[in-house]
Amino acid sequence: MNDELKQKLSSLMDGEIDNHADPAISKLMTSESLRKTWWRYHLIADALNGILPEYLDRDLADKIAREIAKEPTPLSSHRFVASRLLRPAAGFAIAASVAAIAIFGIQQNSVRAPESPPVQIADTKPPQFNANFSSYTFPVLSNAVSSTIENAGDVEPNPRMNSYLVNYNELRTSQTGVQGIIPYVRIIANDDDQ
Amino acid sequence: MTMTNNSLLSDCRKSICLLLLQIPVHTLAGIDGLSPQQLVQQMSRATHELNYDGIFIYRHGRQLNTMRLIHQNGSDGEVERLVSLTGHPREIIRNNKSVTCIFPDNKSVMVEKSHPYTLPLTQLHESVEKLTAYYRFSISGQDRVAGIEATIVTIQPNDNYRYGYQLWIDNTNHLLLKSELKNESGYPLEQIEFTKLDVLQSISDEMLTPAIASDGYTRFDNTGQNTVTQNSNGYWQVKWMPDGFAMSKREKVPYSANSTEVDHMVYTDGMAMVSVFIEPVDLRLQFVPGLSRIGAVNAFARQANGFQVTVVGEVPPATVEKMAVSITNTN
Q1: Which domain holds residue A177?
Q2: Cross-strand bridge partners of residue B308
Q3: What is the ipTM of this complex?
């Protein structure tokens, strides 16, 4: 699994992809290893949330996906494209709902491509964004947290971002009265897949 | 009981129910009769004042890490050591002068200036009280974390420009035992949960000494003195920010990689915080425009008038983007 797909999977899990036609979702449905990774991530999250089901069937998603794959395929090529995108998502939803998992937690804060839009001042309504996902993980000093970059080509790690991040965390500690998450955990966190 | 009495009792019950319904959720008291806001104040105070040593799990997306946190409040102020117990043994040591990040996986050390916590308790009280204009505080119940009884405080933002929090606060020492940072749909983006937390009389210096010998590591030291004239980056203004945000600090941050300084402006509503970094475009250094993130911290970078503007914050992507595009150079 490449870094881009892993990042997509992570974003999908965080509900940051609201485009159901995103190629990452199709890949998720056609790749056994991706499905298992997705299952593992949710298992971790559910364990922490204290909502683990009593019985865990690791093959449940695969079984349901196989059953759905046996369904007749529409003849029209146009319809085939649509169903190819929709069917796995539906099967996926069924599989996951059995394990009490919210799959498509569609968020309002999906992000758009990084064009510089016109400045808007004093707009009190939350902005509406389209579904073009354009996100990357900060290329932090450590290789373990770096290099998953979309729409940016091959980019070398940027130590300037590291400096920004440490400065941000430092002032997060001193400038606000309340801290929900312990500062700096994000900087030293390791990716468990590495 | 007569019909009249029955009717009277029924009316009384209705009145009591109506009264209960009219009590704002945030006024429901937690353990010791403390309101959720008071519990949060106590938590902030305990976090800085106590000596403690704990092990916790940090989760974000696919990441699951175990870490150890040691905090000392001694005669020289606060000293904190954060160690990753899984994967690469990275460490961060923070004292009243500097923050040292040690990355053994690529043999590097980064040092930045620290900003000691100086918010007086009276201001802390005001700071938390002000939050009620932008967040709804409530107590969601009692729980047990790391063998310690805790009160669950839920903090929900009133708009989509900030994240919400759920905090499990130790009923005795008021330390944070578990925390979830949630997006506007209530989905936890990040979680920490202590599995062990000991409050100690004192913390020895040995416990705060890095386990990693960083001799020979590449060192990035950004604690140098200012060498660039003030306002060399011009005067910048953030024209849009969420309600309740105000500038709390403005500083120049030295950056050793290209011997320049970065303008750093800090905006906060008392809970969420956003940093704005501005520096001249340097073609020798890589620049990636648009959105990026680490954990639940989002950033948006763009170039304007020969400068690079980067907005970083533990807020939704929409907030950093909207703030970034509103920034103008008034010179």
Answers
A1: 143-188
A2: B279, B303
A3: 0.76
